[in-house]
Each structure stands twice: as structure tokens, then as C-alpha cells.
């Protein structure tokens, strides 16, 4: 993935939680100066308030661990998805968290059939990698963005980072539904075809500039 442009880096810094907290603290200092509470050394105090707030506030919203399952099975796949959902749901927008909850539901439903022996092992492992590696990476790339940047800045094709992220979750969810339906029909060829489509289309992206 290409590095963001200088303009994008400026926007990321401007919308960052640290900068917003620093500006709020600095504004409080200016307010105290205008109210006459502080007079001497007011400017260094304002700068110090900005710096203190910038240092205190965490840089990001935390990262999701990705797991490469070398010997995936029904229990390990469901457990990995449940753990991811538990850690991510409170950090994501409500729309994204709702989609992640449905993805978890689909993983629970398709996991037994995925490892029943009817689906080629290579395809089962590929789908497990999408869920346990690619999905956490996709979430991590989104969580690196300041919330205001993600929801307000258009980055590609007239869409914001938040819209692109939700589209990716919808893609994964939709393909999991198709894979589950194929498993219920005992249509291994359709499972493989949908799995390959998912591998081609669902890839972690930076959500800054595409």
C-alpha cells in the first residue's frame, strides 16, 4: 500500500484525537487569559496545556491481533472470531459493529460444515485465514484513522474511509452467507468458487488514498 500524500498526513494529524484534545486544552488556557485568571507567561502556559493534553491522550484506538491458524478446526475458528468481535465491537461505529456481529453469526453457522470433510481442506484453511488474518488487519487499518477523518474525509470514488470499511464488511458478510448456503446444499464447487471470489476481493486496505 502506498504511503499517504502530504495533504492526507496533514488531515490525519489535524483530525487526530491528540490534536483535538490539545486544542481544547489550549483553548481553555486562552479562556483563562481572557478572563484575567492568568496574565504573565500566558502563552507558554497555553502551549504547555496543548503539549500536556497531546501527551496524555492515547495515540489510537488499539489494535486487533491477527492469528494464522496452521491447523484450523471448527472450535478454533469460532473462538478466534468471537475473540475478535469482543475486542472490536466497542471501538467501531455502530453500523460496523452490527455487521461484525452478523459475520460472527455466519461463522458460527458455517464452521461445522466447513470442517465436515465435504469442503477441500485448502479452501477451509483459506477461508479461515480470511477471517482470522485479513479481517483483523482490515479492522486495524480502519482503527488507525482518527474517527473524524474516517467519517468526514472523502478518500476514494466519492466515499469516506468509513463507507469503504463498511463496504468491505458487507462484502465479507455477503460471501459468507453464500458459502453457508452452498454448504447446506452440499455444493462443494460453489463453496470453492465463492471462497476464491472472497480471496480476490476482500483485502486489507489503508482507507486513506486508493
Amino acid at each position: 500500500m502506498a504511503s499517504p500524500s502530504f495533504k492526507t498526513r496533514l488531515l490525519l494529524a489535524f483530525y487526530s484525537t491528540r490534536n483535538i484534545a490539545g486544542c481544547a486544552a489550549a483553548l481553555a488556557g486562552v479562556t483563562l487569559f481572557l478572563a484575567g485568571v492568568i496574565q504573565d507567561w500566558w502563552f507558554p502556559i497555553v502551549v504547555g496545556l496543548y503539549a500536556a493534553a497531546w501527551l496524555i491522550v492515547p495515540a489510537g484506538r488499539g489494535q486487533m491481533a491477527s492469528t494464522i491458524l496452521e491447523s484450523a478446526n471448527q472450535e478454533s475458528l469460532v473462538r478466534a472470531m468471537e475473540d475478535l468481535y469482543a475486542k472490536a465491537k466497542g471501538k467501531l461505529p455502530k453500523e460496523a459493529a452490527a455487521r461484525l456481529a452478523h459475520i460472527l453469526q455466519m461463522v458460527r453457522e458455517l464452521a461445522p460444515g466447513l470442517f465436515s470433510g465435504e469442503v477441500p481442506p485448502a479452501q477451509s484453511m483459506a477461508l479461515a485465514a480470511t477471517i482470522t488474518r485479513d479481517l483483523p488487519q482490515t479492522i486495524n487499518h480502519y482503527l488507525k484513522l482518527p474517527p473524524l477523518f474516517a467519517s468526514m474525509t472523502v478518500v476514494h470514488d466519492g466515499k469516506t474511509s468509513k463507507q469503504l470499511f463498511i463496504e468491505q464488511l458487507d462484502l465479507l458478510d455477503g460471501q459468507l452467507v453464500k458459502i453457508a448456503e452452498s454448504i447446506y446444499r452440499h455444493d462443494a464447487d460453489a463453496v470453492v468458487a465463492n471462497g476464491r471470489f472472497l480471496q480476490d476481493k476482500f483485502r486489507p486496505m489503508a482507507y486513506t488514498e486508493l
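The chain has a mean pLDDT of 87. The chain has two domains: 17-56, 74-201.
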